[in-house]
Fold this sequence. Notes:
The protein is of the alpha+beta class.
Amino acid sequence: MIPTTPAKIKPILSLLPDKPGVYQYFNAENQIIYVGKAKNLKRRVNSYFNKDQVGKVLALVRKIDHMEYIVVKTEADALLLENNLIKQYKPRYNVLLKDDKTYPWLCISNEEFPRLFHTRRYVQDGSSYFGPYPSVRTMHTLLELIHDIYPLRSCKHKLDEKTIQSGKIRLCLEYQMKRCAGPCQGLQSKEDYNKQIANIKNLIKGHIRPVLQNLHQQMMDAAEHLEFRKAQTIKEKYELLQNYQSKSTVVNTSLSDLDVLGTFEDTESIYFNYLRVVDGRVVQSHTIEVKKKLDESPADLLEQAICEFRERFKSEASEIILPLTPDFSLDGLKYTVPQVGEKKKLLELSEQNIKYFLLEKSKRMELADPDRRNNEMLRQLQKALGMERLPTYIECFDNSNFEGSYPVGAMTVSKNGKISKKDYRHFNIRTVAGPNDFATMEEVFRRHYGRLVDECLPLPQLVIVDGGKGQLSSAYKVLKELGLEKRIFLIGLAERLEEIYKIGDPHPLLLDKRSEALKHIILLRDEVHRFGITHYRKRHLKGLIKTELTDIKGIGDETAMLLLRNFKSTRLIKETSLEEMEKIVGKAKARLVFNHFHPLAVSNNPSCESEPDKVGFSTQKEKPS
Length: 625
């Protein structure tokens, strides 16, 4: 529907300029509830009040009381201003690209002789922060490598020229272990120390090549001055760094500095994965989940994600690889949407990282709460069907027959999102003659739910019938007779397009094919097919055996089944010799079957005239041949 334009906004709409800018919506309490950017302020803001709106966007528009806007020079300025305002005010209807958990960072402190350490607190104190690192193990590996190559101080003393000259700080164990060069005693100059810090920053950023070149030059200088022990020490550090470099994910050495941003969307969230490529190697990977607030698409949030990641990772890359071209452009940044080649593979690698992130998240949640996934699926099903209660107990029904013969009904059950095979039931139809699915469904419902009512047993919250409107109406008729139409939520599932029919709604409901809710309904339907058809086949086969073989006195179902399994049909059994039959079921039972199909042979053979006992064995001893 087209929402009513607030009185305070009507006069502003016609005055809005056709320029880029940022708009802010306020509620009646003068709180900012939404911040948005626009290439054309007039066109964008008017679209909220001139178009049909539904869902969460309609809810937002209804809460708008008044607005303000800021005109800027370029699209990039609008994007950056929007990003800053969202972080500052955290409006209710805006997505804030922020991690739910705190990841560790590497920090180089803002001191004359900086320290290197890891932390989970990002403090604006002038220090340099690198990260965040989703893998703590990766971060510690890098930290250990740096400490092995560069001797840095780890003490928390405030070091400056005055303190060093006073000589008040003594050399510690770290110096004795050659993990610190002793700047506190003036044994390492500030210039030399800060050269190390510059190399460390390059190494953390992934620029390993200049660090290797620097170490190689130091090694050659030491060798030239015949300082072979020093040259050997530097060589060991050089090889250590080379080994670390060889373990990095190599994509293509021809690719220099790049950013990659992959996306993935499900029903409730959008996921972004950021890859940083330096000198042909992936040096950083980070994935975040963003919960949708206004049914946003990846395209809606892509520009915001670009700004967030580049700011967070201090990226200065001039090119970013994306799955689609954003609406807004940033100065000095080239957008690439690859179709083939190495850059396309990089984008696929980023999307693969999101899949691993989702898999890890799912496993983590299952360990914390084994029933979480099932509960989430049931909540999804409740929401999709518009149910008042959570469907923790579900029953599903189907009928099977062949041209009206041996009709059966079947019921499958799920409890708390799990299949409950012990509660499955078969129904042998008693009152319906001929192929009548509707009457069969009525009998099954009348017997099953009549018993539940009589015995005061728990009722399911959701009942599914396999079929369309006809089967649904038959089932509803019985529930109404029993006074259960308001206590049980009833739906029909049509197989062709997996359409869901509800009572009183002529239009079918189509659930997302990827949703766990629909998958669970289909699982129950497939189970009731399997269960019902299996029972029907057993009844049908038993009926065939009953009419042909089990009328013979002394022959039971097992013997009949054994004969049919070996000789395939009663016609072939009639043609089988007594000796062949004896090999399968023994002499006594073979003679009973043979005598039944060959009565003339009995009248011509005096030795077969004695009556069999009640278990089918002859009481007369066999004469020796």
